[in-house]
Amino acid sequence: MQFTMPAFEPVEPQIVAWKELLPDEQSLVMAAVRASDDAYCPYSNFSVGAAICARNKNSGQTKIFTGANVESAAYPLGRCAEGNAIGKAVNDHHRIFLAAAVYCKKAPGRNGTPCGECRGNLLEFKIEDYPVLVVYETDANGFPLMVARYTIEQLMPDGFCPASLGMLVGS
Fold it and tell me: Is the dihedral of CA 15, 17, 21, 23 positive or negative?
């Protein structure tokens, strides 16, 4: 048996120059940049920061939550930056995600996209498709120059989520 892959066009993110980002997007990205300073990564030196803009479904209040990666000598027990930011948002009852940003201090670009587990967790709290901003290129000091603007649907197409079970987000 020989399997031939049919031709298809992959969905690419929109690459945006820093100055072309909306002010709210710049604020979210800078929150992720600052969060990366709090990373505990003595084994990989791969510092990651994440920021999530989320809304409280009861009060309507919108807030930014940040997280940094935390490594463990017992390797699989570490936590991703996105997971830590998600936990803060959910624990504060902000369970409607509006946008997310990720910054990898050491490896900007495609290496900075969320892992599969984090993509699934980001999808869990989606009411509508929302942007996931990934710092794509930085200057010598780590300041963002170019940002990849994905949507959560691009990162996790046809993902299994509460809607797959006929449920509402955060219920």
Answer: positive
Would you call 82 a catalytic residue per the annotation? Answer: yes
CATH at residue 98: 3.40.140.10
For residue 6, tell me if it sits in a domain: no
| 171 in a structural domain | no
Q: Is residue 7 part of a domain?
A: no
In a domain, 170, yes or no: no
pLDDT (tens place) for every residue of the chain, 171 residues total: 677 767 766 678 899 999 999 999 999 999 999 999 999 999 989 999 999 999 998 999 999 999 999 999 998 889 999 999 999 999 999 999 999 999 998 765 556 889 999 999 999 998 888 999 999 888 888 899 999 999 999 999 888 888 889 887 765
Catalytic residue of the set 9, 25, 71, 82: 82
Closest by CA to 25, choosing from 38, 37, 14, is: 14
CB-based contact 94:65 (threshold 8 Å) = yes
